Amino acid sequence: MKNKIRNESEFEKWFEKNFRRLGYVKILKKNKYKFPDYIMMRNNEKIRVELELRSSNFILHKHPIEQVDEVVCIEKDNSLPKKIIKVGGLTYEPKKVKRVNIALDDTQIGILKSIKGFGTKEAEKVKNILMAYLSEKGYLKEFQKR
After folding, report:
1. What angle is formed at CA 52 by the lines to CA 84 and CA 97, rounded to 5 degrees?
2. pLDDT tens readout for residues 63-122
3. Order of strands, edge to edge, in the sheet holding 38-42?
């Protein structure tokens, strides 16, 4: 078992291979880019499950607590009024990155908010597109030599 998880995508892959270890018998539905992440089956009951690397991310992501039954996480760093399943044997080790903040005007914020389903994963895609553009234009050559 790979015990180091670096991002949500790796955690999803681990979960889909190992959900039975957590007491679930079947994945009924995977909600790509929607909340909650999964609808699972356990004891003939549908369970709405949200995966989070840290339990505090549930609050950070502003998920509606009444629309989930359980939160599965690697690190339980916060309590929630729902069942939290902390996965044993996994360690969350994010890539060491520096965060960059950008300022958006009201129009830009309105455009992003109007895009249904725009969230963390889509922001990551936008970042990757920007990095590819900068690389193509030669702006990253100095950094790529390091």
Report:
1. 145
2. 999 999 999 999 999 899 999 999 999 999 887 766 666 777 888 878 877 887 777 677
3. 26-30, 38-42, 45-54, 70-75, 83-86
Length of the chain measured in residues = 146
Q: What is the pLDDT of residue 117?
A: 73
DSSP the chain: ---EE-SHHHHHHHHHHHGGGGT--EEEEE-TTSSSSEEEEETTEEEEEEEEEETHHHHHTT--GGG-SEEEEEE--S--SSEEEEPTT-EE-------------HHHHHHHHHSTT-SHHHHHHHHHHHHHHHHHTTTTHHHHT-
Q: If pLDDT is split at 50, 70 and 90, which confidence band does 124 have?
A: confident
Is the model's pLDDT at 32 over the cut of 50?
Answer: yes
